[in-house]
């Protein structure tokens, strides 16, 4: 998965003691990435473009647990509630849910490894 992620996201991961790390931010625009390796830490933002009804940038900052999306700013949990109240189903709901899942999994990894 390391090589595949590096090729798709056009990044270079560092590997140490069975863990992967990327010191920048992940820019996932148009990549089809829906999951990240459990042993991956990222030292920046998780970004996605072309999601939602406005096809805008959505960003997530792991350290502060903050998602920015158009006029929304809040935690992953708050964003999930907002998305689910606006979109019952469909492509936009699926895109946002995929981003939310990435953010939730990323935060769990950071918390479990005491990286915050």
Describe this structure in words.
The protein is globular and about 45 Å long. The two termini are 25 Å apart. The protein has one domain. Helix 2 packs antiparallel against helix 3. A hairpin with a 4-residue loop joins strand 5 and strand 6. With 116 residues, the chain is α/β, with parallel strands linked by helices. It is built from 3 helices and 8 strands; from the N terminus they run H-E-E-E-E-E-E-E-E-H-H. The strands form 2 sheets. The protein has a 5-stranded mixed β-sheet, covered by helices on one side.
Labels describing this entry:
single chain; 116 residues; alpha/beta; 5-stranded mixed sheet; 3-stranded mixed sheet; 3 helices; globular
Fold topology:
Blueprint: H1 2-9, E1 14-16, E2 19-22, E3 26-27, E4 40-42, E5 45-51, E6 56-61, E7 66-69, E8 72-74, H2 76-86, H3 91-112
Parallel strand pairs: 2-4, 3-5
Antiparallel strand pairs: 1-2, 5-6, 6-7, 7-8
The total beta strand count reads: 8
Q: What is the overall pLDDT average?
A: 83
Q: Level of helix content?
A: 25-40%
Largest sheet properties:
5 strands, mixed
Uncertain segments: none
Any idea how many domains?
Answer: 1
- Following the backbone from N to C, one meets helices and strands in this order, namely HEEEEEEEEHH
Strand arrangement across the biggest beta sheet: 3-5-6-7-8
Beta-strand residue percentage: 25-35%
Q: Structural class of the secondary elements?
A: alpha/beta
Kindly report how far apart the N and C termini lie.
Answer: 25 Å
Rg, alpha carbons: 14 Å
Task: List the total number of helices.
Answer: 3
* Tertiary shape: globular
